[in-house]
Design a protein that fits this description.
Layout (H helix, E strand, L loop, with lengths): L30 E2 L4 E4 L1 E2 L10 E2 L1 H13 L3 E3 L1 H9 L6 E7 L3 H13 L5 E4 L22 H9 L3 E4 L12 H19 L5 E3 L7 H9 L4 E3 L15 E2 L6 H14 L3 E2 L6
Parallel strand pairs: 2-6, 2-11, 3-4, 5-6, 6-7, 7-8, 9-10
Antiparallel strand pairs: 1-12
Helix pairs in contact: 1-3, 3-4, 5-6
């Protein structure tokens, strides 16, 4: 059986801060398995993919069919957390699409609608209408414009922030860190008319300082990749999904998820 690929979609490794401890779990608090959150990026046919960030529309369709055939439904992260807080949502899977590519609106949204699903798209308000210039290899891909972001929201998709410019938060000074977190949240509110609930760490890198900045900006939750002992509501773990993920691999990833990701403190999903 083929081993599961690494969950990082790029060659950099998601960073954690080993020195400061995360907020302690109160004595006696229960811990729950982290919800199964799937991390997508681009949806397109026939493109170079050195970072494994692209799935074809055909593969995405088959993956959504696999979920629905098992009584599972893909939703945005805010909805998933609300349902879990209410003691429901065991049949829900979180779907996320990072970077805010134009193909999310063109290719992913119609497929999500066809299968009764929604998703969270994490966008970059400082790069609207631009391209993925942070990727030195591979093809340039167009990003959503403000009109595209509003169209995705109007289509029932959750819009979250991926920062302003796709910069690693751990490398930024105080002013730039504030701009990437609070500034991007305010910028999105001007586009969609509402403050986004969710944030996604660019490149999956985070430390205690980055998490504190995201909390201070007012986000209700944040998505990471493999945050280790920093796992919590503002560092939710996800699993990378790529073109190679057929039904067998999805089944394996789902079964391994509780073992590969730390459980969440109960308060992380009952807020």
């Amino acid at each position: 059986m083929t081993a599961e690929p690494t969950d990082t979609a790029r060659p950099d490794t998601p960073a954690t801060d080993p020195a400061p401890s995360p907020p302690p779990v109160r004595v006696g608090a229960r811990r729950r398995s982290a919800p199964w959150l799937l991390m997508y990026h681009s949806v397109a046919d026939g493109t170079e993919d050195p970072y494994r960030v692209t799935v074809s529309p055909h593969r995405l369709r088959r993956q959504l069919e696999w979920l629905t055939a098992r009584g599972l439904r893909g939703v945005g992260i805010a909805e998933l957390l609300r349902e879990r807080a209410a003691g429901r949502g065991r049949d829900l899977v979180g779907l996320t699409f990072d970077d805010g590519y134009q193909d999310f609106l063109d290719e992913a949204v119609p497929l999500l609608h066809r299968h009764g699903c929604t998703a969270t798209v994490f966008v970059l308000p400082g790069r609207f209408g631009g391209s993925n210039v942070w990727d030195p290899l591979g093809p340039r891909k167009p990003l959503l414009t403000p009109e595209g972001v509003r169209a995705a929201s109007d289509a029932g998709m959750e819009v979250g922030s991926h920062g302003m410019l796709h910069r690693e938060l751990t490398a930024l000074g105080p002013d730039a860190l504030h701009e990437e977190t609070a500034g991007s949240r305010e910028a999105l509110a001007r586009i969609t008319g509402r403050l986004p609930a969710g944030f996604c760490y660019p490149h999956g890198t985070l430390d205690s300082r980055a998490v504190a900045a995201v909390r201070a900006a007012g986000y209700d939750y944040a998505c990471a990749i493999a945050p280790g002992r920093m796992t919590g509501r503002h560092a939710l773990p996800r699993v990378h999904i790529g073109e190679a993920d057929n039904g067998l691999r999805l089944r394996l990833k789902r079964r391994l998820h509780p073992w590969r990701r730390r459980p969440l403190p109960e308060e992380a999903t009952t807020k």
